[in-house]
Amino acid sequence: xxxxxxxxxxxxxxxxxxxxxxxxxxxxxxxxxxxxxxxxxxxxxxxxxxxxxxxxxxxxxxxxxxxxxxxxxxxxxxxxxxxxxxxxxxxxxxxxxxxxxxxxxxxxxxxxxxxxxxxxxxxxxxxxxxxxxxxxxxxxxxxxxxxxxxxxxxxxxxxxxxxxxxxxxxxxxxxxxxxxxxxxxxxxxxxxxxxxxxxxxxxxxxxxxxxxxxxxxxxxxxxxxxxxxxxxxxxxxxxxxxxxxxxxxxxxxxxxxxxxxxxxxxxxxxxxxxxxxxxxxxxxxxxxxxxxxxxxxxxxxxxxxxxxxxx
Length: 311
Fold this sequence. Notes:
- By secondary structure, this protein is of the alpha/beta class.
- The chain has helices spanning 16-28, 33-50, 52-65, 71-97, 100-103, 112-120, 138-143, 159-169, 182-190, 223-230, 264-281; strands at 107-110, 124-128, 149-153, 175-178, 194-197, 208-210, 219-221, 233-242, 248-252.
């Protein structure tokens, strides 16, 4: 493992605005949950008004996935998504700094017996999730209610941002694994460990296939099937939900049966199906700000070619 630099070593002037933001976030997280999340919603409203290009991406994704909505309904969902993003900033801070005594009373774990039964079998477990805006707060409560597990992270172009993300996530998981380090994931699974894995964001074409998401062609990695095979692992989908009353519900589903098969595409579509089902439950909480339908092979449309009208 490469040697890591402590966060305190990042002192270049380019990091000062980030440190200032971290300080403000730390102060906001001292507020009770209700007022703290209200600050997050305000941040989201501001971002919605200022981030024209990102707002256009969100609107295009919603337009593609929910064509049955009217333009006004899509715009409303886009605004709700930005408010959810704003709250996710606060929740990231709570995931890093809040005490478990503060988090447990507002959190409910449903179906945890599926995970415990899988771990008791001695096999590794892929905790299969996705990028929802509540991603960073849910791990802390899991940590005190189940066996130690590992978490996958994605490197940022900024080493400082990568270390911020990884160190925050390590408040919840025992070890972090970079998403391209397949060998390390497989070793963890073969050792009977659980690995928290979210493979829903678009990938380049290597190791991916075009699989429709909400009926729209989309690049999806087929790595879940490969990991399950190489790691002799069970696959348990689980998804978070932020309730209107400020509570959080994390639902574990039963493990996929007869998984993996010899059909990587069919295996991946099983994940896409359960993901779509949960997105429909809480559409504002999914990460629409990401260009979900990019990097398609030649012959498919470029869904982000002209976004000016959606800004």
